[in-house]
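Incident log, structure service

09:12 report received: a user says their structure output differs between two submissions of the same chain.
09:20 pulled the input from the user's history:
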Amino acid sequence: MGDEIRILLVDDEPALRDMWRAILGVEGFDVTTAATVPEALCRITSEKFHVLIADLNIGEPGDGFTVVSAMRRMQPEAVTLILTGYPAFQAALRAIHEQVDDFLVKPTEPKVVVELIRRNLTRQRRPVAVLTERLNRVIEKNRMGIIDAWYEAVEKHPEISKIRLPRGERVDHLPQVLDELVRPLDNEEKTKLKGRSASYEHGEKRRQQGYTVRLLLEETRILHRVIADCMQKNLLQVDISNLIPDLVEVHDRMQAMLQHSLEAFLQDGVRTAA
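09:34 re-ran on a clean worker, output below:
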């Protein structure tokens, strides 16, 4: 059986990748490695695997679940195993056992890993029903998390943070902006933003608060990144069949809203970057 089994091993430590590739290769498995989440996602979407072994933390804590989510969505028949150095995390792993077939606590003996792989490959597995939603719904459900992550990132920004504002004024119209961002995806006929939208009022407010055009663009870039992080963390819940058009729609919507903010910001003249 081992000659036919392809394993994707995802770990950000080169020594561990080399060690497990050698160990599993001796057992007859065909092992492919990946060092990052993007590299793993690329492999999952372009190659066929029978087993995924992912470290729990690949660069960032919990990144392993992103890889597992992608594998579950793209190759639901594959066995998924998580490597973790935290035994106390076992309870949480058991709670999401419908996503992860099994887990290994590091350090672990090679024979234990091999035995676990073979046992899971031969085990009768219950099909997992994956309930997916359009991207706008995922953004809507994680609205407060997006706002909190954006606020934290902006407060750490070396230039934006120089403009000292309480949280309420910093967040400003962001909740309404997010509402405007996702609402058009529900409509069969897409309409352009009209009137005094939240994004327009946001631009006016930022001018009054002493922002520059560059800082206004920078906080929008941060929002783009936070939404992308949200999508990655919730990849299993995203409707992959509509992901590309939904991403295009969200991007276009954000560009239109940024344009509205800039129009309001520049209404009384251009404020140059400091």
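09:41 both user submissions now match this output. Likely a transient worker issue. Closing.
09:42 reviewer note: Confidence is low (pLDDT under 50) at residues 188-194. The chain has two domains: 2-122, 135-265.
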